[in-house]
Amino acid sequence: YSKNEEFQGNEHDGLVQLWSLNLKKRPEFTLVCQSEVTSVCFHPFSPNVIVGGTYSGYIVLWDVRAKSTPIQRTPLSSQAHSHPIQNAHNIVSVSNNGRLCLWNPTMLNAPQKAIDLKYEKEDVCPQCLAFPSEETNNFYTGTENSGIYHGQIHSNEESEKNIFDKYSGHVAPVTSLCFHPSKQNKNYDFSGLMLSASIDWTVKLWSPKEMSEPLLSFESAEDYALDAQWSPTHPSVFASSDAEGYIDIWDLNKEIEEPLLHHKTGEKAVNKLKWSLDGKRLAAGDSIGNLYIFHADKEIANARNEDFAKFERVIQSSLRSLEEAQSYLY
């Protein structure tokens, strides 16, 4: 997010717009609130409801059938967030002072559970949050100190320990985490694979259940790497973006050193990427509010059975290479 350079004194700080691809000149809906919106998503079961996290620490709910202002909002309290919310998920929210909250969407007056994240003696200051596909307890968070941490919302530890593992590979704040979708092919499961993007100009591929180090590092960014998102339909394809305005499309079945496409969208940073569910479109948003829609080639959008088998071989080869490198070190 960024400040609106054309801000007027009577305008709201927070703005969410919903667009139709059939109506490109104006948004279908415009939603507002009193604080800058840092994270937003559709409610998974109520498509009319939009969930947002804000810079002030509020979580807000809008209903597009109602007015443009929120229908619900969390209070600012010692139990909830008082720092910017980086992510809100169904609804699990995390802010960069290290607090994770679990919420009931129908009752936002107080969180069901609040956890202050710590790993041994380290403070954990989240920048992003991700859950493996179909997982509601185990989470991963990328932080300001370059670490990626694995934790659980509901821990069985008597000590109330909530962060269990740390993954080191980046050397600057982590800006994005994304787990591989799990239901692309019933014969293959890549749901344990995770992409991370960082201000260190790299995107990395991890298999955190198997290795504490990244399997691969991708270094095509021209500036800070800001986002990386798996294709929902093709196992070996992902997109990444950077602060110089570039979008890269990768197909790891074809090449692990260079992207298939290195495209300049404009002069501003591309903060966020999102694929359509059918993998045929990629949406990209930049730091001044421009939204770009790209159409994917059929070869990228439509995976064949052999693509899954080939990607399995790519991952196994990367795992073996990392294991051999570690054995030499020891």
Task: Describe this entry's structure for a reader.
It contains two helices and 27 strands. The chain is mainly beta. It has a four-stranded antiparallel sheet with strand order 3-4-5-6, with no helix packed on it. A four-stranded antiparallel sheet has the order 7-8-9-10, with no helix packed on it. Strands 13-14-15-16 form a four-stranded antiparallel sheet, with no helix packed on it. A hairpin with a 2-residue loop joins strand 11 (118-119) and strand 12 (122-123).
Provide the descriptors you would attach to this structure in a database record:
330 residues; mainly beta; 39% strand; globular
Given as residue ranges, the uncertain stretches (5+ residues, pLDDT < 50) are none
What level of helicity do the residues show? under 10%
Q: Based on CA inertia axes, which overall geometry fits?
A: globular
Biggest sheet details: 4 strands, antiparallel
Category from helices, strands and their pairing: mainly beta
Report strand order across the widest sheet.
Answer: 3-4-5-6
Mean pLDDT: 88
| Through-space gap between termini | 44 Å
> How are helices and strands ordered from N to C?
EEEEEEEEEEEEEEEEEEEEEEEEEEEHH
Number of strands: 27
Strand content: 35-45%
Radius of gyration from CA coordinates: 20 Å
- Helix segment tally: 2
